[in-house]
Amino acid sequence: MNQKPNAKGIALLPIAVFLVLYLGLGILFEYILHIEMGFYQIPIVVAFLAAILVACFQNRTVTFDDKLELMAKGVGDKNIMIMILIFLTAGIFVGVTGRSSAEAAAYFLLSVTPPRLAVAVLFVVACFVSVAMGTSVGTITLLTPIAVPVAMDSGFSLPLCVAAVIGGAMFGDNLSFISDTTIAACSTQGCEMRDKFRANFKIALPAALATLALILVISFRADATPVAAVEHNMLLLIPYVLVLIGGIAGLNVFIVLLLGIITGAGISIATGQMTALDVLAGMGSGVSGMFETIMVTILVAALCGMIRAYGGFEALLNFIRRVCKGNRGGQLGIGLLVGLMDIATANNTVAIVMAGPIAREVSAEYGIDAKRSASLLDTFSCIFQGIIPYGAQMLVAISACATLGYSVSAFEIIPFLFYPFLLCVSSLLFIVLGNKDR
User: Which of 49, 223, 360, 374 is the most buried (most CB within 10 A)?
Assistant: First the structure.
């Protein structure tokens, strides 16, 4: 079992089964039966269990005990363990800091800037909050209820304001040190987070600046009225700022998160935002929110262990060799691979976990540096996740608007999603014009 397996396309059948179950049922529920949040009614863990069952019935030459051993080796990888521990710690941090910090950042900037900058403020705040919190869905959940009254008070269109929040949220999802996509990308490629951040920053910053410029052009052509002031406490931003500074400085991610948890809990209790019991409850809910992601990580690792042994990865590598030539072709292959996985799963973390082991072999084949490979995985997954109309980010934003009594569709928002589109342009330029890492 230690020999390099022969390429066998049939070994990819479990992935096809997963995609049919998850994507097929998602389309059925969301667009045919019109079930709200239809894509998220399918238990992704069950879909992966079905895929593993198919893999267990494949390759009769391998005994069931040996298949269990293959799965165990996949799950037992050191990077999988690191990923799970970081997921848990990041969940505790988000649970402790809560939503008050995001609101404080938004309303502070809205109170000190001209009305015409309201949409730009929403984008900048979403960028900051998502980088600090490491979650695009969490950022959208926190800021969309602010974007709606901003749109109503200022006169800007609701789709534009919501799109500014989604774009900023994807910026942080792509860059944050505690984002599950960053954790997954770095862990699967075996690189340091600070190295991936530096490579990623060169792609994300130009796209963010271009997005901000576009928003400002639209804003200065519109008539805007002042946004109503809301009380805020700037002390609540300290934990986020500390995590951001610690991550950029290259401190160990566990030390950074522990510092954020301690300061977040202390400030929340001292300012009366939470009691000690509330902090403990927040920690529990934060950890619970990571359970499905952790379970998916374990199941994907087990599934990939069998697919690799059956020759599935080698079959994918052969396909990439035929289609993509040279170092730049390999980079584009990694981007398209994770993008297709994201379209199929509507979950950028799952897409990275699935594509990561293949991307690592592509990197070795084409001489692509680990930090560059991790950056491409994270960036392209966020590009597609930020645009697809059935992604959690879009659905949560639409649901938050509906909760406040305002109706907006994904197809009204998509034309204003400047950041994901510009991030795609920036990523392609990064591949074409960037220095080849060998």
Answer: 374
Is the separation of the CB atoms in 29 and 35 below 8 Å?
yes
Region 300-327 average pLDDT: 78
367-417 confidence digits (pLDDT tens):
889 999 999 999 999 998 888 876 778 777 887 787 677 778 777 888 999
Q: Average model confidence (pLDDT) for the chain? A: 81
Q: What angle do CA 382, 244, 274 make, to 5 degrees?
A: 100
CA dist 81 and 412 (Å) reads: 41
Please tell me the distance from the alpha carbon of residue 80 to that of residue 138, in angstroms, as a whole number: 24
- Quote the tokens at residue 362: 């592509």
Terminal CA-CA length for the chain: 30
State the DSSP code for 8.
-
CA distance 332 to 339: 10
SS (H, E, C) 126-157: HHHHHHHHCCHHHHHHHHHHHHHHHHHHHCCC
Residues near 386 by beta carbon (within 8 Å), at least 6 away in sequence:
136, 166, 167, 170, 393, 417, 419, 420, 423
Amino acid in the structure at residue 241: V
Instruction: Give per-residue pLDDT as tens, 235-260.
Output: 777 887 777 677 667 666 678 778 88
Tokens of 208: 């963010």
- Residue burial 104-123, b: 16+ Cβ < 10 Å; e: rest: bbbbbbbeeeebbbbbbbbb
* Domain residue ranges of the chain, discontinuous segments joined by +: 9-433
* Contacts of residue 435, Cβ cutoff 8 Å, sequence gap at least 6: none
Helix (H, G, I), strand (E, B) or coil at 4: coil
Within 10 A of 365 (CB to CB), how many other CB atoms are there? 14
Token pair for 193: 């987070």
Q: What is the pTM of this model?
A: 0.71
* Residue 58 half-sphere exposure toward CB, CA atoms < 13 A: 23
- When mean pLDDT is compared across 118-127, 221-230, 251-260, the lowest value belongs to 221-230
* pLDDT tens track for 33-87: 877 766 667 777 888 899 899 989 988 888 889 899 988 887 887 767 776 777 7
The mean-pLDDT minimum among 34-43, 146-155, 195-204, 392-401 falls in: 34-43
